[in-house]
Amino acid sequence: MGYYIGAGKDLSVQNYRLYDAYWQTLARAKKFFNDYVYNVSTMDPDDSLVTTGWCLADPGNEYVIYLKDGGATTLDLRGESGDFTVKWYDPRNGGLLQDGSVTTVSGGASRSLGSAPGSTSSDWVLLLQNSELRNGN
To answer: Which of 7, 40, 46, 113 is the most exposed place for a label (fewest CB within 10 A)?
Structure first.
């Protein structure tokens, strides 16, 4: 069985334990999307909405933002209405969603999303969901 590792690193894998950390990272990513994201199939990439990071968006409903090097970002919510919960997910360790320095933002403007609950220079995932979506409306 072959496995593609990257440029010039194709190899026949005999010992999958070599990639244990990789598999665990993928398992945490899958768990995040399965457990917390309402409907990833309605989301499209739109990095123009954030000042830093990568963004998947279902505008007005739900946003997933990946901050590779931690830090802070701003999300453009102009033209959107309602309140959005702001939660943080630790992709290095998994677990529950966490509160950062900002827990809610309102649509209608570009909004700072605050800082992560810890390890602010490490990678983090932000999940913003319209409060109506979270309440099942």
So the answer is: 7
